Amino acid sequence: MTVRIVDRRFDSKNKSSVNRSRFIRRFKGQIRKAVSDAIARRGIRDIESGEKIGIPGKDIDEPQFTHGHGGVRETVNPGNDRFSTGDLVERPESGAGAKGGGSASPEGESLDDFVFTLTRDEFLDIFFDELALPNLVKRQLARIDEYKRIRAGYTASGVPTNINLRRTMRGAAGRRIAVGGPHAAQLRTLEAELRELRKTRAEDDPEIVRLRREIARLHARVEAIPFIDTFDLRYNNRIRVPQPSSQAVMFCLLDVSGSMDEGRKSIAKRFFMLLYLFLNRNYEHIEVVFIRHHTVAMEVDEDDFFTSRESGGTVVSSALELMRRIVAERYPSSQWNIYGAQASDGDNWNDDSPRCRELLESSILPCCQYFAYIEITEAEPQNLWLEYERLQATHPGHFAMQRIAVAADIYPVFRDLFKRRMPEAV
Amino acid sequence: MSAKKTASPLSTEGPGHAAGATLRERPAAARARGAPLPAGSEWSVEAIAAYDEAIGRVAADYGLDCYRHEIEIISAEQMMDAYASIGMPVYYNHWSFGKHFLATENRYKRGQMGLAYEIVINSDPCIAYLMDENTLPMQALVIAHAAYGHNSFFKGNHLFKQWTSADAIIDYLVFARHYIAECEERHGVEAVERILDACHALLNVGVDRYKRSPHLSLEKETLRQKEREAYLQAQVNDLWRTLPPHLERAAEHAEQRFPPEPEENLLYFIEKNAPLLEPWQREVVRIARKIGQYFYPQRQTQVMNEGWACFWHYTLLNALYDEGALSDGFMLEFLQSHTNVVYQPPYNSPWYSGINPYALGFAMWRDLRRICEAPDDEDRAWFPDIAGSDWRETFDFAMRNFKDESFVAQYLSPRLMREFRLFTVLDDDTRSTLEIEAIHDESGYHALRRQLSEQYDLGSREPNLQVWNVDLRGDRSLTLRHFPHRRRPLGQSHLAVLEHLACLWGFTVRIEEQMSDGTGQLIAERKCEKRRRANE
Q1: How big is the CA angle at B492 (ends B487 and B493), to the nearest 5 degrees?
Q2: Across the interface, do A66 and B490 touch by the CB < 8 Å criterion?
């Protein structure tokens, strides 16, 4: 009797997915906090991957009745190398064993934490949740790129409808020549010989009969080579490539003057991330330019962008001026889709604000797809906001602005942007 | 002291025979028998079938009595799935399984642990999982270990025979899964989860330790389930309904406790007596309890069971090697895995985490065989009735009639204690130092053996809690009594567990601790008043 062997490898893989999502739902509070820490650590561009999350182990304990410390305990251990009966030994530190918990591992997460990895979808889900995005937008952002099927040469296997006749016939001809070639050459020499012999000898001469027989045999062999063989079949090959669109550049403008504290920067970061995510869905290639400013503007890399903090006054136009110059030098608007995102707390030198509006109106907005401005403050709007409001009236759909206090206020800034793209996407 | 001269556990003499073992010379006569089995490290279905057949033939020669078995090949991810649900192929959904899955996945991906080579399910037919990433020698090892070793233990050991119904467990799990899914649909995932959380917290005080549980059967369960619902509810209501008229007589009955005898199975008591549970909630409690009970024998026979399986994979594959069916390369790979499994780190090693049940079990079974086949004077003095007996018969008897606790008490030999260099440490919190009570010498053997045996007694490993009283005539509170074992207090988590208990019971719950004079002292209380309006 042979044993029954069942191959289950191709059965449904995610038996645990229900349990997994229940776990995430149940500890959403803790996980959300962990995600929020993770966002602070991440670069704007790598929003798209999963994330390793640690949540406090004690929160998710499954309690049982157990013995506590104390009382009399007796244990049997192996490997005695020094003890005799009646020896008295100092009690090791921290109760029973030397292996106490709580020490930090090299990665900086406490060993007591329960650590696991969120998938990309789970991570984005929680990220979107915080931003209060409408479902339609969530779907659009979270979906995998659409693909286009393009032709890519030929393959030897496929469905009959994809057979490429020319290639197939060419292959067949080649094969017939290659396989039949030696016979054909031999045939030609034999026929020449036969012609020679017939000049001198009679038709029933044994040599002539032998030649004729040989020639007939070769003919049969050549004819036995199939005209077309499955081996010759060639099919059109199509592969899937991500739907290409074009390239975009995203300018992140951040006010780093003394009044922008960590909380505000964190909101600004989410704002930039969301725009990046949106662009990533719609453009094949994206570059990001980071410009930070107080009284003067500088182009920096992402690390400096979020970490440094300077004091002093604010001249917003310096950043806009730098952006205009970079666009002119490196990103001609004929080749690039240009997006701008500006975050500030609204403080600006009074006489600089009109200049900001002018810069935007005359040189930036005309070459920009979209420019969004958020003002992270709870104070009364100041002159920069008032100047920008005038712009909004003249450039609807091009220019968005919003005053926000918490992360959930960010989405309205992009509402127009997403609305505009929606019909294409769905 | 004499002990120092004895071999360490991993010497060639010791329990981990394989560790120092070189490949033995094959007996020339055996060489002819048995064609070589497929070699190489890539497995194929045909190769696995060939190995299974060969191993089965050798196992039959040794007289191993097994359930029929089935082999299922799964991927690493599926192995983690199975892990998360305690190895069961079908299980109801619960977040804690998701948690275990994530933990396993994370540790696996970090390389902190390899996955188990095998999961085997105590069912008839017995199902053994093979992971597709394993090499052919590993698959053969797993087949010998799980499909023949564990399988025969499941079939023979009295605890498994008595407590689990191998022919019905899968059906019961299917029933449980459907029932719980149905409850989730009717009452919401959260409501069901609340009950399951509470049941899981009480699982280790939800088993019958002494009574035998009746056979499970799918038909019976489904047929009777509706009936039981109605009946149970009527019972419970009756208990409480008769109360008010008797209130005036309460005083004279005040001394009578309910239940009259303490009840050890907390979940059973709740299922039958909790006043406010809905019928479906009772059924959920019953399901969790039944499945918990099913795992109870496994926890009681870990050393024996794992040791038994290791002994047989070692013996069966060596027998095949002697026949000439296995290559030297195969044996080297097999021996390496085997040695890793049965390694026992000493107490002061950074890898030490208690006695390795595989190491101890394997060593004990091998030692038992040695006592039967080649006893010395010491063995004759200690084991007069088995020294020199037929080892197959002795094995059969030992496998069928013992659990870890009694197995150690019966068969742990002085020689093995020396080889493991065992010693006991007494930790008394009233004294400032630890004391070494006994070591592996003449005066210590008995104490060591008794102590190790006690260590495997689940009764002393887990706190002893009993349902002590329900205040039927008063506030309906439930009182548990903790009987401390050698003055050991309850762990901190009892407060959280009490919370869960209160959720099931619906009224105040308390834990008392039994004092030396027999009175109880209150150690924890959780107030709760969940009366429904109709009752007020």
Answers
A1: 120
A2: yes
Of A126, A103, A102, nearest to A38 by C-alpha is A126
Interface of A with B in 31-90 (CB under 8 A): 52, 60-81, 83-90
Paired tokens of A262 = 């960590």
Give the global pTM. Answer: 0.70
Say which residues have a Cβ less than 8 Å from residue A187's Cβ, sequence separation at least 6: A215, A218, A219, A222
Look up residue B262 and give its two tokens: 């303490």
The candidate with the shortest Cα–Cα distance to B162, out of B213, B208, B123, is B213
Say if CB B372 and CB B388 are below 8 A apart: yes
For B323-352, the pLDDT digits (tens) are 989 999 999 999 988 998 899 999 988 888
The ipTM, to two decimals, is 0.78
Q: A interface mutation test: which of B52, B53, B77, B81 has the most A CBs within 10 A? A: B81
The whole-angstrom separation of Cα B457 and Cα A123 is 46
End-to-end CA distance of chain B: 74
In angstroms, rounded to a whole number, what is the distance separating the alpha carbons of residues B402 and B395?
A: 11
C-alpha pair distances (Å), A183 with each of A172, A190, A193, A207, A226? 17, 10, 15, 20, 15
Q: pLDDT in tens for each of the 426 residues of chain A?
A: 578 888 888 876 666 788 888 888 888 888 888 887 877 777 777 766 777 777 877 778 888 888 888 888 888 999 998 899 988 888 876 544 433 333 333 333 344 678 788 887 788 777 777 676 665 555 556 555 556 778 888 888 888 888 889 999 999 999 888 888 888 888 888 888 888 877 777 777 787 888 888 888 888 888 888 888 888 889 888 887 765 456 788 898 988 877 778 888 888 888 888 888 877 777 777 888 989 888 888 888 888 887 766 766 788 888 999 999 998 888 887 777 888 888 888 888 888 888 888 888 888 888 887 888 888 888 788 888 888 888 888 877 678 888 888 877 777 777 666 665 444 333
User: Taking CA atoms, what residue in A is nearest to B356?
Assistant: A78
- Contact check, Cβ <8 Å, A23/B99: yes
Cα–Cα distances in angstroms (integers) from residue B83 to residues A55, B71, B115, in the given order: 22, 17, 9
3-class secondary structure, B116: coil
For B341-392, give the secondary structure using H, E and C: HCCCCCCCCCCCCCCCHHHHHHHHHHHHHHHHHCCCHHHHHHCCCCCCCCHH
Which residues face A118 on adjacent strands?
A51
Contacts for A31-38: CB closer than 8 Å, 24+ residues apart: A31/A55, A31/A118, A31/A126, A32/A126, A32/A129, A32/A130, A35/A118, A35/A123, A35/A126, A35/A127, A35/A130, A36/A130, A38/A123
Strands A399-404, A370-376: parallel, antiparallel or unpaired by DSSP? parallel
Q: Which residue of B has its CA nearest to A83?
A: B436
Contact call for residues B264 and B296 (beta carbons, < 8 A): no
For chains A and B, what is the number of CB pairs under 8 angstroms?
259
Q: Rounded to whole angstroms, how far apart are CA atoms A328 and B81?
A: 56
Cα nearest neighbour of B48 on chain A: A5
Closest CA to B422 of B446, B461, B443, B448: B448
Residue A346 CB-half CA count within 13 A: 20
State both tokens at A148.
């286009």
Out of A7, A11, A68, closest to residue B488 by CB:
A68
Query: How many alpha carbons lie under 13 Å from residue A180 in its C-beta half-sphere?
Result: 19
CA distance B405 to A76: 14
Best CA proximity match to B102, nearest among A50, A351, A254? A50
Identify the three-state secondary structure at position A222.
helix
Ramachandran angles phi, psi of A196, nearest 5°:
-55, -50
What's the CA gap between B128 and B119, in Å, rounded?
Answer: 6
